[in-house]
Amino acid sequence: MPVDSAPAGLAQSGEAAKAPGPLHGWAMIWTLLGIFVGGMALNLTPCIYPLIPITISYFGGQAAKEGEGQGKLVAHGLCYMMGLAVTNSLLGVVASLTGGLMGAMLQNPIVLMVVAAVLIFFATSLFGLWEMRLPSGLTQAAAKSYTGYFGSLFMGLTLGVVAAPCIGPFVLGLLTWVASMGSPWLGFVIFFTLSLSLGLPLFFLAMFSGQLKKLPRSGGWMIWVRKLMGWVLVAMAVHFIRPVLPGHGGTILIAIVALAAGLHLGWIDNSQANFRAFPWLKSGAGITCLVLATFLVASWAMRGPGVTWKPYSEETLKEAQNLKKPIIIDFYATWCTPCREIEEVTFHDPSVVKQAESDFVMIKVDVTQGGNPVHERLLEKYEVKGVPTIVFLNTDGKEKRDLRLVDYFPPDQFLGRMAALKKNGS
User: Fold this and answer.
1) Closest CA to 207 of 80, 83, 87
2) Which of 47, 166, 289, 339 is the catalytic position?
3) I need a labelling partner for 161 at 20 to 30 A (CA). Which of 75, 310, 314, 372 fits?
4) How far apart are CA 52 and CA 58, in angstroms?
5) Active site residue 289
6) Is 339 assigned a catalytic role?
7) Which of these is catalytic: 47, 79, 289, 336?
8) For 310-423, which CATH superfamily applies?
9) What is the pLDDT of residues 164-196, one digit of tens each?
């Protein structure tokens, strides 16, 4: 989010231009992979799956009109995917441009609850409790067929309109999430990835249209896939309200959602299919969700005590200097996802806790709410541009700027920072 949208002029996860952004590294890779898999699953919903033979026949017919050749078919497929990418990527960029407003609003617990309620509302559509319907005129216009490469491009551009009853709730939920990050570049990449995952199956099936007969026939299994995407939206809703839940409430609630999703998708739902692998698919999804719920509960139950923090005060600094102990200051906010990740993982690691208790003075500055004059002065003194920011001070109270952290760090790497601070503490 922009620097001036958060309390006390803070942005989540970043220090000026050096900030890695709300998603980077492995988090970015896993997120995009999850979105790609989700887009592939959307192809199996009742609104898109029946379009597969129609779309492939259209590609083949267009290529035949312009002369036989695989090259023509490839060109039509690329035009189709380009149309998809243009529509979805523009949606992502436009949504992310509201990030300044959305970012500031998402610091309000009431707004977080409203956003979560909206996601749950869209999820109920995917569960079949209500149907999203667009004006018939818009749907008919989107379903028109045009010849040539423009026709393929137009099909890609309007797929979202034709398939809105199935993919609309998921896309709207994704738009809400993208808007909360406030990065046009991320908005583009995320929705471009979604476009690829929607278009690639059709593209490759068009290239090998002879394999079309091997596809499963339409049936109740597509309703099951649609419900699966509904549970994805429920999980996103839980992600939004985690900052307002006390203690480990977020972890427990996610485990409950995983448990409910596993029981529903694996055994309670009575959707049927005409291919033998479907029961195995249902059971596999159910078991996966149950394993995830068990892992979350076990990790929460087995987790030991975390780092003991002290509030900032001049007396605490003087005490640390008298004890000849280095100081670590964590600038934290409850609405900051990487902050919570550091707290739940790194600052609960037994080795980190042991080192912190014996050799360091640990200070936490909670900037969730703005307006605290002491915190404002600290933010200015240490030039903190965003949270999380972790500042390392030697025994003289001077910062070792090369050790500063502005994003999540795993325990082993954080221990390396602690060792470097101890070594050069004086």
Assistant:
1) 80
2) 339
3) 75
4) 10
5) no
6) yes
7) 336
8) Glutaredoxin (3.40.30.10)
9) 556 766 777 777 777 766 678 888 888 888 888
